[in-house]
TrEMBL record:
Identification of the protein by name: NDP-sugar synthase
Mannose-1-phosphate guanyltransferase C-terminal domain mapped to chain residues: 252-333
Pfam family, one: NTP_transferase
Family: Belongs to the transferase hexapeptide repeat family.
Amino acid sequence: MTEAILLVGGKGTRLRPLTVHTPKPMVPAAGVPFLTHQLARARAAGVEHIVLATSYLAEVFEPYFGDGSALGLHLEYVTEQEPLGTGGAIRNVASRLHSGPDDPVLIFNGDILTGLDIAALVDTHRTSGAEVSLHLTRVEDPRAFGLVPTDDTGRVTAFLEKPQTPEEIVTDQINAGAYVFNRSVIDTIPAGRPVSVERETFPGLLADGAHLQGMVDSTYWLDLGTPQAFVRGSADLVLGRAPSPAVPGRRGDRLVLETAEVAADAKLTGGTVAGPRTVIGPGARIDGSAVLEGAVIGEGAQIRDSLIGAGARIGARTVLDGAVIGDGARIGADNELRGGIRIWCDADIPAASVRFSSDQ
């Protein structure tokens, strides 16, 4: 058995207002909390024991997932009292692991949607004799990421943080946020203080001559750190572009949860999700969007690439394009909101008061 650590303690600042009341891994994607997809994929790969490293809104996780038995897992929860960074969070949960010193431990970031072959990463780790193995993926523009060049055998040769000049871009391989650690390596991470695996642990191991192995897996990969990416990831799960055994229904152009009410002439396309107890009015057109629990979409509304928070109300004929509407917000009829605009939770916008707005 391989056990795993899931890092789910981040505040999700870039995702606000979605994360004002909900930690990022618990925001619904394709009808269920995003974390559900990660847990289900780990279980399908043979993982049975997972420790969740929680911090922000930590009290939300255990009431929803319990001991994990419904997913065929044994889940434990460890809460950071102060933010410890990725490495500090890993070290903070080490006492809950059952693995021996030479056993592999999987580590996942709680905001990455990926088609990674988890079993292949573990196998690469074992056969290469590495102390740490990293999932790497290739991207067209790596400037926003940390580069991880490797030699011909896949052994990591350096860690290069967010290059900006053409000369600094020596590879298109980036750290994709999933790792396998030997348990003994976890125990060497300093305890009780913030530690970054990306900036401290990995470079330090490399400097000490440790064997770090990279495995390039260029299947589906998406960092869900922004609202636009989160909406896209949810739609890709519904459309079947991103793999998950946890999508609650048949994949296709739309996903309508059982308790949702959708008018007969409303049109939902592009991987749109109508969450529990949502109401979609007559003539509404919704494309590539997520409508979360209890939200109401008025007659003739037109919504594209947007996320509508729980309990929000969108008025008749209102147009949303690339918008994020916080939980409980009320957008009156005949408004037009575009260009990445974010409306805060419980905001109230009167009818016909906004024709266009943008965060650009």
